[in-house]
Predict the 3D structure of the following.
Amino acid sequence: GAGVSQSPSNKVTEKGKDVELRCDPISGHTALYWYRQSLGQGLEFLIYFQGNSAPDKSGLPSDRFSAERTGGSVSTLTIQRTQQEDSAVYLCASSLAGTGTPAAGEQYFGPGTRLTVT
Amino acid sequence: TQLLEQSPQFLSIQEGENLTVYCNSSSVFSSLQWYRQEPGEGPVLLVTVVTGGEVKKLKRLTFQFGDARKDSSLHITAAQPGDTGLYLCAGARGSNYKLTFGKGTLLTVNP
């Protein structure tokens, strides 16, 4: 079946504008994750969804960041009043299980959205 | 502090050579994954190891999980240019969902 898809692939925005990033997980995957990847920083966990609930939002950098998931499928990551330090690649991943088994760690990633804030 | 340390950070070798990449931590992980990422793409899962001392082989790639489940290695035999990419290790603790990633090893295999 289809893999994880993300849109847009690239986004250039002006400082202070809001942006929405979209993720379509693999069908049937109950768990969904957002990460941020910056040069030299590795992948940084942002938020985890199990179904439509987000039991772990601990990685969101500030209250300008929010995410939601509807219908246990598509997720949107919203960044309000973007800042230059928000520039990064935002990666979405999904997995078959959220917790309790090693399968939870087998996450399948989308190609990412490269966000550039000017 | 980085929970998972990968070494080396950069590695440039000639086609046909062997190499080993290391992933070390002072923490115990319930499972550990290795991913490969190419430019402009997301990481692709290569393997999951769960049991201390476990060894898994994927063609020319051999993955080992340390006995204490704190470290792992990836060995590539007779490297090819197609092996070029960023190799990431990621560990899960406790409930398994939250992966901690190393910063990666950028491998370049020259023809």
Chain B touches chain A at residues 2, 30-33, 35, 40-45, 48, 50, 88, 90, 92, 95-104 (CB under 8 Å). The radius of gyration of chain B is 13 Å. Chain B has a mean pLDDT of 93.
